[in-house]
Every structure is written in C-alpha cells, then in structure tokens.
Amino acid sequence: MDVRMFVSGRRVKKWQFIQLFATCFVLSLMFFWIPIDNHIVSHMKSYSYRYLINSYNFVNDSLSLKRSEEGVPRYQYLINHEDKCQMQDVLLLLFVKTAPENYNRRSAIRKTWGNEKYVCSQLNANIKTLFVLGTPSDPLIRERLQKRLVWEDKMYNDIIQQDFADSFYNLTLKFLLQFSWANRFCPHAKFLMTADDDIFIHMPNLIEYLQSLERIGVQDFWVGRVHRGAPPVRDKRSKYYVSYEMYQWPAYPDYTAGAAYVISGDVAAKVYEASQTLNSSLYIDDVFMGLCANKIGIVPQYHVFFSGEGKTPYHPCIYEKMMTSHGHVEDLQDLWTDATDPKVKTISKDWFDIGVWSRQKRFFWLIILKNVVTTTHRISAQAVKVLKFNNSPTFIG
Q1: Amino acid 196: pLDDT
Q2: Quick check: 253 and 229 in contact, CB under 8 A?
Q3: Is the dihedral of CA 131, 134, 137, 142 positive or negative?
Q4: Cβ distance 164 to 135 under 8 Å?
Q5: Cα–chain-centroid distance for residue 75?
Q6: Which of 47, 48, 65, 93 has a 20 to 30 A CA-CA distance from 147?
C-alpha cells in the first residue's frame, strides 16, 4: 500500500510539473506572440503573397499607383551636361546618388572606381560617371554650398542637379532624374548602374562581367542583391513607414537593394516609360524601381557578389570575385588599392590551385566562400535594418 502511494505521489508531482511547464509555455507564447506575429509571421505572409504580385497580371495592373493630379513632377536643371555621352560608344552609364555636402566622398570616388580615365586606359571600356543630387536642404548654408557645387562641377564636369530639395524623402525624385537624363541624353548606353556614394565597386570585375554580357547581347537584364517578399514597414516611428493609403499590399514586388544594381539599356528605356505612370510620392527609390520593373515584366537576378546593404569581408579570394560592397567611406582608397592589386589573382590562384587541391576540393571551398559572403551580407543587412528601424541618420540617399 505504501509503495503504491509513493508511486502515485511521484506521478502526481510529474503531472503537476507538466501542467506548470505547459502553463508557462502558453503564457510565454501569449507574451511574445504580438512581436512574433508582427515581425516573422507577417514577413512569411508577405513572402507568400509575392508570388501573386510577381506572377499575375491583374495584381500587376493594380500595383500601378494612381497618378497625382499634377502628374509626374518636373524640375529644372541647375547643373547639367547634355553632351556627356554624345557620339560615344558607352558601355556603362554610372549614376552615383550623393548629397550636396558629401564632397569628400565624391572626391574619393573620382580617384577610384568612378575614374573614367582609369577604366578607359586600364580596362579598355568607356564609362560615364555622373553624381546625382538636388539642392541643399539647409537654408542657412544653401547659397554657400550651391556655389561650392558649381565650382566643383567646373573642375570635374560630372554633376547633374535639379531644383528639388535633396533629402531622404525625395529619393524617388532622384531616381526620376537619373532615368529621365539617361532616356534623353544617353539612350544608347549598353548598361546603366545606380549606386550610393558609400559603395565600393570593383570596377575591373564589373567591366569584365558587363563585357561578357554585351558579347551575347543580353536584354531584359537587372542584377543586384534581390529582396524577395519584403513587407512594407507599417510602424510610424520608422523613416521607412509606408501607409496603407500609399501602398495597400502586404508585400512589395521583388527588387534589388538601391545601394547598387545594374540594368541593361533596353530595361532603362522601359523603366523610364513606366515611371511616368506612377505616383512618385512613394519615396523609397529601390521599391519604386521594383514597381516600375514589375509593371513591365522585368524580374531581378540575384548575384552573390553584389553585397546590397552588406559589407564584404576583407580577403584576397573575395576581391577576385566581388562586385560591390556597402559602407565604405574612410577606407575606400585603401580597399581600392588592395582589391585591384594584380597580386590578388596570384594569391587567389595559389590558394585554389595548389597541387594538393583537386577540382572537387576547389569547388567545395568556392561554395564555402560564397556562403561566407552571403552570411556576412545577411548579418550586415540585419544590422542595417535595426538602424533603419531606430531612425538612424546614417543613411545617405
């Protein structure tokens, strides 16, 4: 009898423990359900919904935002170079989105990946680099800074500027400036690229890549770091907040990170036409690009060595393959020197081609390398998203 009571007592305690554990689990789930639903579940829903957005014509048609009564905004050029591409065979028209006050960034780019003379003499290609901006937003320094921009352009002849205020909330106006300029003054460029001014571009790798695409006559081409099934931010505290009135759907069409992407010339012309039918009040320019592309049926291609918002690891083996890396200001010149050093290919070749390595092992390590890059990009991108959510002022359009 005593033994039975002892066993029964143990079972009761075990059952009580299970009940207590289950209760704690349910309470924890209830406590964390709201943030889980907002952050993860909503993203899963939006990722599923993207197949409708990207695949069905009736959804594509409904994504065309109603044009405002004023139509597409028109602004006047303050600085322009109409003959930048005239009568020239241009492989790449490169637009760099920059703020008026970022002279040091523009100067560093002119000495590195944006240097037209370097690309022509060393890479045997013709590119045209243009810095795209609006007017200084701060009225206290507007006149002085504008005079400095005029002086800077007289020195380098590489700035285009219209008379809208240069701010984060006018990024789509900067987008329209790029595509309208390309359509009017350089429609024959083989490729168009848009990039931020804190990006590093491995120009030798990029030119080699684009030349290979040109040889096969690629069309309907759009490549970069692809965001798939991204949901609109509905938190009013975020600078990326988008209201239901502005965009009612739970997911954006697939788009590439605005930090750097490349399109073929035929896509540039089609995107320009599509942009004239959309309401530019949606100020997130890379999403706006996705809407334009979705309207004309262009799908972005993912490229592992376009970093998007991520920062590429510093390593010679990665330098040999990399296209872009985000978040380079102070280290741009040093990275350019290291990444374009001819010794990089030798180091990488020695790393992969040493006698003990079989083809299978080299392939295995290449996969690992790509996974390292991808993981690093994801971690960096998540960090950027946290900063964006907290309204970090570090973003430069």
Answers
A1: 97
A2: no
A3: positive
A4: yes
A5: 25
A6: 93
pTM equals 0.77
Contact 170, 164 (CB under 8 A): yes
The pLDDT mean for the chain works out to 81
Structure tokens at 348: 């990488």
CB-CB contact of 156 with 110 (8 Å): yes
| Alpha-carbon dihedral 342, 343, 348, 350, rounded to 10 degrees | 130
Residue 94 contacts residue 128 (beta carbons within 8 Å) = yes
Tell me the two tokens of residue 109: 């780019």
d(CA 289, CA 277): 13
The hierarchical CATH code for the domain 77-302 is 3.90.550
Angle of helix 285-296 relative to helix 171-185, nearest 10 degrees, comes to 50
Q: Which residue in this structure is represented by tokens 């081609």? A: 353
Provide the 3-class DSSP secondary structure of residue 257: strand
| Nearest-angstrom CA–CA distance, 169 and 195 | 17
Beta-bridge partners for 241: 233
Tens of pLDDT, residue by residue over 143-157, are 999 999 999 999 999
Distance in angstroms (rounded) separating the CA atoms of residues 263 and 248: 28
The domains of the chain are located at 2-55, 77-302, 316-389
Rounded to an integer, what distance in angstroms lies between the CA atom of residue 229 and that of residue 6? 58
pLDDT for residue 309: 81
Helices (H), 37-102: 42-55, 57-62
Q: How far apart are CA 57 and CA 34, in angstroms?
A: 34
pLDDT digits (tens, 9 = 90+) for 324-336: 999 999 999 999 9
Mapped onto helix, strand or coil, the DSSP state of residue 183 is helix
Q: How confident is the model at residue 132 (pLDDT cuts 50, 70, 90)?
A: very high
> What is the C-alpha to C-alpha distance for residues 363 and 361, in angstroms, rounded to an integer?
5
CA distance 143 to 365: 55
pLDDT at 312: 83
